[in-house]
Amino acid sequence: MNILAIESSCDETSMSIIKDGHTDLGTVILSQIDIHKMYGGVVPEIASRSHVESITIVLEEVLTKASMKIDDIDAIAVTYGPGLIGSLLVGLIAAKTIAYIYNKPLIPVHHIAGHIYANNLVNRLEFPLIALVISGGHTELIYMKEDYSFEKIGGTLDDAVGECYDKVARVMDLSYPGGPSIDKLAKQGNDTYKLPLPLNDSSYDFSFSGLKSAVINLVHNEEQRGNKIKKEDLACSFQNRVVDILTKKTVKALKEYDVKNLIVAGGVAANSAIRNSLENACKQHGISFTVPPILYCTDNAAMIGAAGYFAYKKGIRADLNLNAQANCNLEDLL
Ligand code: KG4
Ligand code: ZN
Hints:
Strand content: 15-25%
Oligomer: single chain
Low-confidence stretches: none
Number of domains: 2
CATH topology of the largest domain: Nucleotidyltransferase, domain 5
Bound molecules: 5'-O-[(R)-(carboxyoxy)(hydroxy)phosphoryl]adenosine, zinc ion
CATH architecture of the largest domain: 2-Layer Sandwich
Largest sheet: 5 strands, mixed
Structural class: alpha/beta
Radius of gyration: 20 Å
CATH superfamily of the largest domain: ATPase, nucleotide binding domain
């Protein structure tokens, strides 16, 4: 089954053709990072206009890349939420139009289900599993007992981990997006700054605003005293706290839920220290570990095509009334 997948929830216009939920026949990702960089973050109105300009070009390109025609496509999968409403609408209207004109089934996909199923493009998911979803908008631990069944066991009470990376990078005058900048810098530094381990309790919830504020206060205090920050050491100290808390809570979940597989998903899953720490923890506990290649960690349509296949097998379909949702719960499947 060939699924044409469309993702436009934030600042990437992306389309993919995915076969049977696991094989990428062609992916196009048009990133707007260079446009938003000068504002230090994504500007929603600019993002939606940019999607409008790109969407038909991306469609033509993905068909060419996969050497296919629309007739070779069996269904259309699209991200309906969560995300920026204006951005989501562009991909959604494209998907509905193609589904209507060519009479193809339309499959609604939750963006986070997409991030999770990016792992199915690497290895077939083994159940039961725990998924750690870490992105610019999400920090969640999800238990899956079978395909397309999602139970959230914990999540962030305030900032998402990627958001925290981006804000800390901004106060340190690093380039946007902050995650890759801090990741790179941390490798050159030492853990010398005293920072708190956030929400170090027995729950599966996370909180990153305290850690973010601690870094911001530290930078301001040092500035006022006329002291220079050692950026690589601060990046290393900050990242170590993030790695420690993510690893600690994830390992607790792996043991308690007695799972076979840990998968990591979302833009922050591109982080080298987080990947290494979780991989080592899995080795120690005899649990298989999967993380997508970097290309499939940040937003892309391949993951939506992979998730769309399993949604389709579960009987999930949408009609032309499907609407975009800026906020929606992964557990409330359409
Ligand atoms: O999944 P994603 O592309 O968009 C959302 O759905 O949010 O994630 C983007 C986030 C940004 O906050 C970015 O700073 C972070 O992923 N990120 C990283 C790394 N690469 C991207 N964070 C830490 N280390 C990285 N190497
Ligand atoms: Zn995402």
